[in-house]
Each structure stands twice: as structure tokens, then as C-alpha cells.
Amino acid sequence: MARRSAPEVNAGSMADIAFLLLIFFLVTTTIDTDRGISRKLPPPLDETVEPPILKQKNIFVVELNKNNDLLVEEAPMKLEDLRAAAVAFLDNGGGSGDEACSYCKGEKSPSSSDNPEKAVISLRNNRETSYGTYIAVQNELVAAYTELRNRESERLYGKSFSQMESELKDVNYSGSKDRLKDQIKQIQLMFPEKLSEAEPKK
């Protein structure tokens, strides 16, 4: 008895179908991008330039240990109090003469920062600090700058700094973008974000 040959499957169009499916998934799939912390890296180290001399009172030291405990100026502090403490430091305005701050509304304590241009926030953390706590502390410190910038922007231009930044990104904004950029730069110069991150401790 003769053996029957198995019928062949026509696979000629399988490559076309696979290619169409590939294009379909490439077009319809959205890829989430990770959002990071906005930081400007320092320029390459130049051995000929001396680092600026900072007064100790112009440095606001924030530390995170391996147990996620927050220490501000070597004293324990709760995370929810950090923003107010940073605002008080940045807005102190304790300088006199050329270092005086005309727009600061702080206590003008001589033991705290002279003016926002000289004030530096130094963040130090341990290698075993949890990422969530680290990000939460970063958020509070950036929020302190944003709060002060919003206040001065409202006073000078009648709208918040955050609103001005969103208007700058808006393609349908009807006003002058050059003027808006100048206003944003002016507010940034009043409260420059000087956030220093030291090498993590082991």
C-alpha cells in the first residue's frame, strides 16, 4: 500500500504577517521614560581655579544616615519640617553692606545665611540610605527654592514662577517668550539653586 504524502502548508505569507504585526506593535506601544532629578553637573575640574571660600554660616548641612534618620545642622528633624527650615535659611538675609538682601523676609540673624546668592545647601547621605527617603529629601529642598521663587515672582510679575515655566513650554503661549525668559532668569538669580551633594559615606 502506497504511503500518502503529507500536504504542504503554504508559508509564503507568514513573513508578511509577522512584519505587519511588528509594525503594528511598534506604532501602538508607548514606552515610559524614567524621570530623574534635574541637576546640572559641575564643569570639569580645573586645577588652576581656586574653589570659592564659603563661610560656615552660609552652608546648611542636611544629613541622612543608614537608618534614614534626618539630621539638619547636626540636630534631628522630621521630613515635614525640612522645607520650612530650608526656606528660613535661604531667606534669612543676615548680610550687611554689599552682602545685604533687599528682598529677603527672614529673621536677618547674623548666625545664618547672608543672602540667597551665597547660601548653599549641602546634602550628605549614607550608601545604605533608602532611595525613597533620598528622593523625599531632595523634593523638600527643591520645594523650598520653588516656594521662594513663587513668592518673588508673584510680587514682581503677578504670577507664580511655576506658571511662568509652564507658559514657556506652552507652544500656544501668545506673549513674548523672550520677555518671559528674562523674567524667569531674574527670579533664578534672586534665588539660585545651590544644592551640593557630597560623596556618600560608607
Automatic annotation (TrEMBL):
Signal peptide per UniProt: none
Cellular component annotations (GO), alphabetically ordered: plasma membrane
Superkingdom to which the source organism belongs: Bacteria
Topology with respect to the bilayer: Single-pass membrane protein; Single-pass type II membrane protein
Location in or out of the cell: Cell membrane
Keyword terms, alphabetized: Cell membrane, Membrane, Protein transport, Transmembrane, Transmembrane helix, Transport
Any GO molecular function: transmembrane transporter activity
A Pfam family that the UniProt record links to this protein: ExbD
Gene Ontology biological process: protein transport
Family: Belongs to the ExbD/TolR family.
Protein name, entry field: Biopolymer transport protein ExbD
Organism this protein belongs to: Aquimarina amphilecti
